[in-house]
Design goal:
The structure holds 2 protein chains of 2 kinds. Chain A is of the alpha/beta class. Chain A contains 11 helices and 14 strands. In chain A, the strands form 3 sheets. Chain A has a 6-stranded mixed β-sheet, with helices on both faces. Chain A has a 4-stranded antiparallel β-sheet with strand order 2-1-4-5. In chain A, strands 12-13-11-14 form a 4-stranded antiparallel β-sheet, covered by helices on one side. In chain A, a hairpin with a 2-residue loop joins β4 and β5. The C terminus of chain A is likely disordered. In chain B, α3 runs parallel beside α7 and α6 packs across α7. Chain B is globular, with a radius of gyration of 21 Å. The chains are: A alpha/beta, B mainly alpha. At the A-B interface, β6, α3, α4 and α6 of A face α1 and α5 of B. Chain B: It is a multi-pass membrane protein. Chain B: Keywords: Antibiotic resistance, Cell membrane, Membrane, Transmembrane, Transmembrane helix, Transport.
Chain lengths: 331, 267
């Protein structure tokens, strides 16, 4: 079945004089992972909260599997589940009690709730911690329990809001495995992230969102080809060397060499990785000393630079609080 | 991790279930939390005992001439007073609770939006019942004796419980509309002082000046106190009982919907 999971039209949410969501048009197909990529404050969380019926839009429409999120909120709620950025499990209860509570609330019998919750604890590697209070959990365990809590009844659509932010690499990998296992069983996942590699790893399609608007949308490979397949970052010992470094790297790679947000940083878009060693050698030969360098996928900053011409500045996520500084990520 | 256990369990996707069931499950959550934080029971265990000791032994002799006579008079009032004051706690707790992520989860579930509140209110009954039992039990230890029968005493206790359940909806409402849990506590106490002390709880209203008697006579807590006193030691008037029941019904009918509406708006 390939239907449409999410469709929004001109979606708007206003906080004070800031438009957190500023006319988002989105079509998310059913099945697989759809990535929502953007910096803090871009409007990712707000959009997700509207889609999960936790917040009403101020303008435009949004529907989930054909049901309007405002007028048919109950239908939407029965099909979706949300794992927010912040823990939505009860700290005072144990892992098992949290899942059992949700199982009971969602209509399982006592015995079924117990079986389901034991299965989930097992699948998420939490069996040993089942009888511990959640406040004693590590960040990774908490996040896994949070996701488990979202699939006590497997939703057709699962929202994961920055599921790996703040996790160590191992926990991050575990969350990725969970996401893959879920989509393999037919759940559609809408995932927000600040990491291009995460979106690249998991998502079939990616929307890049900035200041409440979608600025690019497409498959991960299409997005990357518009951004460059890789990037070389160099960190200079002396920021005064930067003009020379930019000069050298521009000659090596072509036009797309940018100064980073740190005055000692330079980033160059690399299409042909075989040019990297020669470029580094040239820098050394010209006496430009490096504190460090890396070659890899473009970062979110570079995606933004390529797509918008400005870097993604950090601001508070508009959905977290209505009292935050309503300043968007603008150049 | 075995992906096999992530197999979705779609067949159990629930049909709509009644409010009662969801609330019961959520009341269970509240009870578990109470068990983990026994200090939530201080106000319903130690407080009644302290109040009984203070009023009976400190003021009793002066007010009634004998501590035992005053105990017989004041115990139903103290029972009502401590329970009424303990209704503020739920407003304070929910005010804090609602700021945590777990309420976001509840809101995104396909359950009635009132269920988390109804569940929390239902669970509070355990605290109120504890307070009533401690008051009566400690009263008995130091010499209080009901002179009616067991059913009549139980009816008196049930009446107090019912009023507490009704009154806690006001606290829940305050907890939803006020920004800080401290203000819930403050406003709750300010409202309860004239209601409890300005009643027939502690002294015979005959001894009060006229303007105060006028207030005492219309104060619903006076009717509650008189009803319970009558059910415990004889002379209960059906008028008092009916007024008390009517008041409890009216408070619930007004404040439960208001609280639920305020809760929805918090989304």
């Amino acid at each position: 079945m390939t239907g449409i999971a999410i469709e929004t039209h001109e979606l708007v949410k206003q906080f004070g004089d800031k438009r957190a969501v500023d006319g988002i048009d989105l079509v998310v197909p059913e099945g697989g992972v759809y990535g929502f990529l953007g910096p803090n404050g871009a409007g990712k969380t707000t959009t997700i909260q509207i889609l999960a019926t936790l917040m009403r839009p101020d303008g435009g429409t949004a529907s989930v599997f054909g049901h309007d999120v405002v007028r048919e909120a109950d239908e939407v709620r029965s099909m979706v589940s949300l794992t927010g950025q912040y823990s939505s499990v009860d700290e005072d209860l144990t892992g098992r009690e949290n899942l059992q509570l949700l199982g009971r609330v969602l209509g399982y019998s006592r015995a079924d709730a117990r079986t389901r919750c034991d299965d989930l604890l097992e699948a998420f590697g939490l069996t040993d911690a089942a009888t511990k209070q959640v406040k004693r959990y590590s960040g990774g365990m908490r996040r896994r329990l949070d996701i488990a809590a979202s699939i006590v009844v497997t939703p057709r659509l699962l929202f994961l809001d920055e599921p790996t932010t703040g996790l160590d690499p191992r926990s991050r990998k575990q969350v990725w495995d969970i996401v893959r296992a879920l989509t393999a069983r037919g759940t559609t996942v809408l995932l927000t992230t600040q990491y291009l590699d995460e979106a690249d790893q998991l998502a079939e399609r990616i929307a890049v969102i900035d200041t409440g608007r979608i600025i690019a949308e497409g498959t991960s490979s299409a997005l990357k080809s518009s951004v460059g397949s890789g990037a070389l970052h160099v960190h200079l010992i002396d920021p005064g060397d930067r003009p020379r470094a930019i000069d050298i790297l521009t000659r090596a790679f072509g036009d797309e060499v940018f100064p980073g947000s740190d005055p000692a940083d330079v980033t160059g878009r690399v299409d042909d990785r075989s040019k990297v060693p020669a470029a580094l050698a040239t820098l050394a030969a010209d006496g430009v000393e490096l504190a460090g360098f890396s070659y890899g996928q473009p970062t979110l900053d570079e995606v933004f630079l390529a797509l918008t011409g400005h870097t993604a500045e950090e601001t508070l996520e508009a959905g977290d609080s209505t009292q935050n500084d309503p300043e968007g990520a603008v150049a | 991790m075995s992906a096999a256990t992530l197999v979705p369990d779609r067949t159990t996707t629930p049909a709509p279930f009644p409010l009662v069931r969801h609330s019961a499950a959520l009341a269970g959550r509240a009870l578990k939390k109470m068990r983990r934080t026994p200090e939530q029971f201080f106000d319903v265990t130690l407080q009644p005992i302290i109040f009984i000791v203070v009023f009976v032994y400190l003021f009793g002799g002066a007010i009634a001439g004998s501590t035992h006579d005053y105990l017989q008079f004041v115990l139903p009032g103290l029972m009502a007073q401590t329970v009424l004051f303990s209704t503020i706690a739920i407003g304070v707790n929910l005010n804090t609770d609602i700021k945590e992520g777990v309420f976001d989860r509840f809101r995104s579930l396909p359950i009635p939006r009132s269920a988390p509140l109804v569940g929390a209110v239902a669970a509070e009954g355990v605290r109120y019942a504890t307070s009533i039992a401690v008051t009566l039990g400690f009263g008995y230890v130091i010499g209080y004796r009901a002179t009616t029968n067991v059913w009549s005493v139980l009816a008196g206790c049930a009446l107090v419980l019912l009023v507490a359940w009704a009154l806690c909806w006001i606290a829940v409402f305050l907890g939803m509309v006020l920004r800080e849990s401290g203000s819930v506590q403050g406003i709750g106490f300010i409202a309860l002082f004239p209601l409890t002390f300005g009643s027939s709880m502690f002294v015979d209203p005959e001894t009060m000046p006229g303007w105060l008697q006028a207030w005492v006579n219309i104060n619903p807590v006076t009717h509650l106190t008189d009803a319970v006193r009558g059910l415990f030691t004889g002379g209960a008037e059906s008028g008092d009982i009916l007024i008390t029941l009517g008041m409890a019904g009216a408070i619930t009918a007004v404040f439960a919907p208001l609280a639920v509406r305020a809760y929805r708006r918090k989304a």
